[in-house]
């Protein structure tokens, strides 16, 4: 069975430090004796000593490794490196593919999105929003659920960080905030650890930078007048009107 995940899935669902260490192992040829199984992959990853690794073909974070972290059922760089090998098949990585999921920042570039670009970005946003969903599981699935929220926010951060500064983009980001707010208030999202809330505050900071760079962007904030949000994230933006 081929891997049921791609490099983006691995990147956005893994913390940046682990992902980048795994990239290093893959690029340095440390993933040896790689073999395909009917439902996964095995390898021997060379580190302080050889580590025997098994990774599922369906879920890259399921499997085993006999390193210190692996023996505690914690996703380790050896498992991630093996999953990367399964996805890349020995091919060379592009520079932009080597970076882990970074934080949310403004692109710093001014520009205007056309209708086609806006439509494409909305589709990407909707795809990322699938990971920010209601929680209805038991305590056993809590950590997996939090990982899903983090992956969704990582995917959204990557999208937002590439957007040009301009009124159409500001409108798009305000709509994104309102969608997330609705999920927190009415959609059953359990954001107990503040993952989604922190991302939303980051988007507000980006919008403040937009308004400082291009005052016209503040017109997008008019939509926030008279509404009640789940934790008052809109207040810094309304002050700019």
Task: Work out the helix count.
Answer: 8
Mean pLDDT over the residues:
94
Q: What is the number of domains? A: 2
SS strand fraction: 5-15%
3D shape? elongated
Strand count, sense and closure of the main sheet? 4 strands, antiparallel
Secondary-structure-based class equals alpha+beta
Radius of gyration: 20 Å
Distance between the termini: 55 Å
With strands numbered from the N-terminus, the spatial order across the biggest sheet is: 1-2-3-4
Element-by-element helix/strand order: HHEEEEHHHHHH
Describe this structure in words.
Helices cover 44% and strands 10% of the residues. The chain is α+β, with helices and mostly antiparallel strands. Strands 1-2-3-4 form a four-stranded antiparallel beta sheet, with helices on one face. A hairpin with a 6-residue loop joins strand 3 (50-56) and strand 4. Helix 2 packs across helix 3. The longest helix has 19 residues, at 142-160. It is elongated.
Could you outline the blueprint of secondary structure elements for this entry?
Blueprint (H helix, E strand, L loop, with lengths): L6 H6 L3 H12 L3 E6 L3 E7 L3 E7 L6 E3 L11 H12 L26 H15 L12 H19 L6 H19 L9 H19 L21 H4 L3
Antiparallel strand pairs: 1-2, 2-3, 3-4
Helix pairs in contact: 2-3, 4-5, 4-6, 5-7, 6-7
């Amino acid at each position: 069975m081929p891997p049921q995940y791609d490099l983006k899935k691995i990147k956005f669902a893994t913390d940046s430090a682990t992902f980048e260490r795994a990239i290093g192992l893959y690029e340095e040829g440390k993933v040896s004796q790689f073999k395909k199984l009917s439902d996964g992959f095995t390898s021997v990853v060379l580190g302080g000593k050889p580590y025997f690794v098994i990774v599922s073909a369906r879920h890259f974070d399921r499997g085993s490794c006999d390193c210190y972290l692996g023996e505690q059922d914690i996703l380790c760089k050896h498992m991630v490196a093996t999953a990367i090998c399964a996805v890349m098949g020995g091919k060379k990585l592009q520079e932009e593919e080597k970076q882990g999921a970074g934080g949310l920042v403004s692109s710093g570039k001014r520009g205007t999105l056309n209708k086609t670009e806006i439509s494409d970005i909305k589709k990407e946003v909707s795809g990322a929003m699938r990971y920010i969903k209601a929680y209805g599981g038991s305590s056993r699935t809590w950590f997996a659920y939090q990982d899903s929220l983090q992956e969704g926010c990582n995917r959204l951060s990557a999208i937002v960080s590439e957007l040009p500064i301009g009124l159409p983009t500001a409108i798009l980001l305000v709509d994104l905030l309102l969608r997330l707010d609705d999920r927190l208030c009415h959609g059953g999202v359990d954001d107990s650890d503040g993952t989604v809330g922190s991302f939303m505050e980051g988007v507000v900071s980006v919008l403040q930078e937009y308004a400082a760079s291009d005052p016209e962007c503040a017109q997008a904030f008019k939509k926030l007048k008279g509404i009640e949000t789940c934790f008052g994230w809109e207040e810094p933006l309304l002050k700019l009107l």
